[in-house]
Structure formats: C-alpha cells, structure tokens
Amino acid sequence: MLSTIFQEQVADATNTVAEGEPVEKTLSVIELITTGGTAGIIIITLLFVLLIMACYIYFERIFAIKDASKIDANFMNQIKDYVSNGKLESAQNLCSTANTPVSRLIGKGITRIGKPLEDINTAIENAGRLEIYNLEKNVSVLATISGAAPMIGFLGTVIGMILSIFEIANSGGSIDIKTLADGLYTAMTTTVAGLIVGIVAYVAYNHLVVKTDKMVYQMEANSLEFLDLLNEPS
C-alpha cells in the first residue's frame, strides 16, 4: 500500500517537472564544436593541429635537453688529469665517448691545445653557438603558436559575429534564434580554443627557455673551468 502511494507521488512529481519546468539541456564538446558551423569547425581543426604540433615540439625538446644535460660528475676531473699528464688523445676519446654538448665543447678546445689561449676560447665559443642552436631547434615555433593561436581564435570570433549580424540584417523582422546561435557558438568556441592553445604553447615555450638557459650555463661553467686549466702555470 505504502509502496503504491510512493510510486504515484514520484510519477506526479515527474509529470509536474515535465509539464511545468524546462528540462536542463546538456551540450558535449563535440556538439559544441559542430554547432559552430563550417567556419567554426575549420578553425577548431586548425587550432587542434597547432596544439598537436606544440605538444610534439615540447616533449621532443624536453627529452633532447634532458639527454644533453647528462654528464658524468667526474668528467672534468678526468679531463684535468689527462691534460695535465699530456694524454690529449685519451682526453679526446673521453669527450667522444660522452657525446654531450659539454664534452663536444671541451673536445673542440682540446684539439686547439698548443695555440694561443684566445684562439682556443674563440673555437669553444663558436662551437657553443652551434650547440645552443641545436638545443633551441623548433622552440621558436612554440613562440609563434602561442601568439598565432589566440589570433586565429579571434578570427573565428569575428566570423561568428559577422554571421550573426548577417542573419539579423536579413531576418525581415523575425530573428531565427537557432541560426543566430550558430554564429555565436562559432564566436565563443573558437575564442576559447585559441586561448587554450595559446596558453599551452606559451607555458611550454617558457619552460623550454628555462631548461635551455640552465644547459647553456652548464656549458659555460665547464668551458671556463677548462680554460682555467689551460691558463694554470706549468
């Protein structure tokens, strides 16, 4: 008896909601993108491609910098021993085996031993510029994406507003809310997507810059240590 009464009350409440109150409408991400029309889909697709590029460049560079920063803690001590004892070939072999930016700089300096210290310093600096260039490869693309993505999103915003205004101008006094909403969807979704891609690329770019600067500092510190070794009195 009580169960029957409870079921009737639930049914009455459901009918009341169905008849008197609007049902909350949900919108998935896919629906939000497709509702924006052809222009919105094209711009969102372009932004998605830029996001994939930014993620690929970021992780590829992070792993490359991580590998480049690996160096044996006793590397410079071994170099000092070899150079002090005149075992330049052994020192050169050690640099070739390590195969890191630091070891390549030291190896370049070892090949110039016997020449004026200024020439050795110049050779190391030139090799350092090449190493820095390799470390920063494609990082500028991230900077470009971080600036271009929001602009592309704003382009979608302008296109969406133009579509909405066009529909209002040609409505003849009766505005189709659905058609008007499509233009607004294009305007809003592309703006959000552009900002998201831009923020991701911007954060990734700055993180890579910090990592690269640390690597450059490591190269400079080891190069100066090597030059100080050569400048020591015999």
Helices, strands, pairings?
Elements: H1 2-20, H2 29-34, H3 37-68, H4 75-84, H5 88-98, H6 101-111, H7 117-135, H8 139-169, H9 177-231
Helix pairs in contact: 3-8, 3-9, 4-5, 4-9, 5-6, 6-7, 6-9, 7-9, 8-9
Give structural notes.
With 234 residues, this protein is mainly alpha-helical. The protein has one domain (39-231). The chain has helices at 2-20, 29-34, 37-68, 75-84, 88-98, 101-111, 117-135, 139-169, 177-231. The protein is rod-shaped. The model is unreliable at 1-20 (pLDDT under 50). This is Biopolymer transporter ExbB. It is found in: Cell membrane; Membrane. Residues 99-220 form the MotA/TolQ/ExbB proton channel domain.
Shape: rod-shaped
Largest sheet: none
Number of strands: 0
The radius of gyration computed from the alpha-carbon positions, rounded to a whole number of angstroms, is 32 Å
Number of helices: 9
Assembly level: single chain
Low-confidence stretches: 1-20
Percent range of helical residues? over 70%
Pfam families: MotA_ExbB
Main location: membrane
Domain MotA/TolQ/ExbB proton channel: 99-220
Family: Belongs to the exbB/tolQ family.
